[in-house]
Specification:
The protein is an alpha/beta fold. It has a single domain, classed as Rossmann fold (3-Layer(aba) Sandwich). It has eight helices and eight strands, in the order αβαβαβααβββαβαβα. A six-stranded parallel sheet has the order 2-1-3-4-8-7, with helices on both faces. α1 packs across α2. The protein is globular, with a radius of gyration of 15 Å. The relative contact order is 0.20.
């Protein structure tokens, strides 16, 4: 699957969710689905899911979508157990698995071809875990996946960009993004 196609499919099903995106998906997501309900995770690989966990626990009535990268998650595998232990029902963890550290030169991730991220999430205690490698199956399956109680893990097999991807810059300071998100969640801004 191509990253852009997958992101479009997710944007079509966003329905007011808060989205925390990491480097691999960040810039394209901002263009496809601009919102004050977007929060970027740049500068601390593996932090998107735990940043999202805090928001999910604070706002259990609001769906949280995490757009994570395989290289990023490898930096913080313990987060899977932390998330499973907290068991947020509104938590949807999308993992873009392209097999490389794309933003730093496309070096292959450890154990590529043998690693099973959905299996690890399931073993850590996520309520459910899924894997998609076909866009039409993703489009068809996504509505039912998003109706499941979380935490839900969704591994997305995507094709690497084939070149070093620009690493998701941060046009706003994290404090500005957090302020905009707080206002949007309080109903003071359009999401």
């Amino acid at each position: 699957m191509q990253r852009g196609d997958v992101l479009r499919a997710l944007a079509e099903r966003r329905e007011g969710a808060v989205v925390v995106a990491t480097m691999t998906a960040l810039d394209a997501w901002r263009e496809l689905s601009p919102s004050d309900l977007n929060m970027s995770c740049v500068g601390f690989m593996g932090g998107a899911s735990t940043l999202g966990l805090g928001i999910a626990l604070a706002r259990p009535e609001r769906r949280l979508m995490i757009l994570d990268g395989d290289g990023s998650l490898l930096m913080q595998l313990g987060s899977l157990a932390t998330i499973a232990g907290a068991a947020p029902k509104n938590f949807y963890h999308f993992l873009f698995h392209n097999g490389v550290y794309e933003v730093s030169g496309s070096q292959q991730i450890p154990a590529e071809g043998r690693i099973d991220f959905a299996g690890m999430a399931r073993a850590a205690g996520y309520a459910s875990a899924h894997r998609f490698d076909d866009l039409e199956e993703l489009r068809t399956g996504l509505p039912s996946v998003l109706q499941q109680e979380g935490p839900v893990f969704i591994e997305l097999a995507i094709t690497p960009a084939g070149e070093t991807l620009r690493g998701g810059g941060r046009p706003n300071q994290v404090a500005d993004e957090a302020r905009a998100l707080r206002q949007a969640l309080a109903g003071d801004a359009q999401g």
